[in-house]
Amino acid sequence: MDFVREHKRLSTIILIVAILLLLFGTTFARYVYNVIHNHILESNEFYFNSSVLSMDGSEFKINNWDGVNPYTLTIDVNNKKNTLKSTKSDISYDIEVSCPSSVTCTLNKTSGVIYEASGTDSYQITVTPKDTFHEGDEVVVETKATSTSPYVKELKGTYTIGIETLDFTYNIEDNVGDKFFTLNLTNTSTYYEVTKAFSGYQVGDHLTIEEYNALTDDQKENCFSAEVTLSFVPKDIYLDMTNRKYLDRDANSETLEVVNNHNYVSGFSFKMDASSSEKIIFYKKDPKEDYTYPITNENSVIDVNVNIAE
Predict the structure, then answer these.
(1) Distance between CA atoms of residues 74 and 122, nearest Å
(2) Contact at 8 Å (CB) between 228 and 170?
(3) Tens-place pLDDT, residues 168-201
(4) Gap between the Cα atoms of 111 and 146, Å rounded
(5) Do 249 and 183 share a structural domain?
(6) Closest C-alpha to 173, from 124, 243, 240, 246
(7) What is the longest distance spanned by two Cα atoms in the chain?
(8) Do 183 and 292 sit in the same domain of this protein?
């Protein structure tokens, strides 16, 4: 009885969960426990949250992995309840990940700290294939972030990553608080198509990577593997104009938009080699925005149109 008197709040929670467990089963009892536990933490002005993880376990389904190249998941955590309320101390947390034996899951760190001043932190999971995958296969990756100080709270998430055999994929890596984000482009096509006849090659002929590399620079201009066009609104995001693909863009492909009486790049086109990847940096007007695609956002802030060699 002394324990009950000294730990009245905890005893009440245990009693409620026990009753719910008997009446409704484990899942509902766990849900109610999480609600009550989170209420107690927030009454102490402790907030440990994420846009992708939750106490009950968020679930995501992604269908844009080629099953060949490593796939990176970026997980954010923060110390906020809303724009007005946040934890008035640093939060330390531990990180876990589990995945099937067909892949290797690597964390960029196993623990982290959300500093009061910044309010956010993040970690990355890199999923690397060990087996050969085919279109329609799936990989389930589970991750957990558990705060260890000043209070304990567990956030979980499950990612079902589907393999879709595409010649071209793209994604955006971003975090709340970052001043820029990265657009990743991958062309997995393994050949080139002739668009203008030359030296015995006819329009529509296919060249292997080795055959293409043996051509002169002028001859290469008559072939392509992927032609990419990027379009975006330069109001909230701005292109890094030192990017190599922008500097080597197709002639007359650049489009401009006037914002506050200044011309800003709003689009351009360029070629990508077969079996290649590119990274393009964009700066953000508001670092509080998170443009991660496709995990956090269903739509990309960058419109990517691709013409692949057929």
Answers:
(1) 7
(2) no
(3) 889 999 988 999 999 999 898 889 999 999 999 9
(4) 9
(5) yes
(6) 124
(7) 94
(8) yes
